[in-house]
């Protein structure tokens, strides 16, 4: 099974895919999200990087993001970022 992950900015949908794990740069610290993670909401640190692991043991793909929110629910993880590069 996989975690459904979406990265969205005000301009566009940056990413929508099933992945193994995502490390979210929360304002209270980084946290990893796998499938089945408990529901949680967090603000995102400014000028941080989200780490996306496509499969177990894969190298992380990093996307620079600025601010926003992360929400984990039964449908997966959604990051609403102010900007993504």
Structure notes:
- By secondary structure, this protein is an all-beta fold.
- It has one domain: ATP Synthase, domain 1 (Sandwich).
- It is 0% helix and 67% strand.
- It is built from no helices and 8 strands.
- Strands 1, 2, 3, 4, 5, 6, 7 and 8 form an 8-stranded mixed beta sheet that branches.
- The N and C termini lie far apart (28 Å).
- The relative contact order is 0.30.
- The model has no long low-confidence stretch (mean pLDDT 96).
Q: Pairing-aware structural class of the strands and helices?
A: mainly beta
Distance between the termini: 28 Å
Strand composition percent: over 45%
Radius of gyration: 11 Å
Helix content: under 10%
Give the beta-strand count: 8
- Return the CATH topology: ATP Synthase, domain 1
Number of domains: 1
CATH architecture: Sandwich
Poorly predicted sequence stretches spanning 5 or more consecutive residues: none
Please summarize the sheet with the most strands.
8 strands, mixed
Gross morphology: globular
CATH H level, superfamily name: F0F1 ATP synthase delta/epsilon subunit, N-terminal
Number of helices: 0
Task: Give, in order, the helices and strands.
Answer: EEEEEEEE
- State mean pLDDT (0 to 100 scale): 96
CATH class categorisation: Mainly Beta
């Amino acid at each position: 099974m996989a975690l459904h992950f979406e990265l969205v900015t005000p301009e566009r949908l940056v990413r929508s895919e099933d992945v193994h794990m995502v490390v979210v740069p929360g304002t209270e610290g980084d946290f990893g999200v796998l499938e089945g993670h408990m529901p949680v909401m967090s603000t995102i640190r400014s000028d941080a990087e989200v780490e996306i692991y496509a499969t177990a043991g894969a190298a992380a793909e990093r996307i620079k993001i600025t601010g926003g929110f992360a929400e984990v629910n039964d449908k997966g993880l959604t990051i609403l970022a102010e900007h993504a590069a």
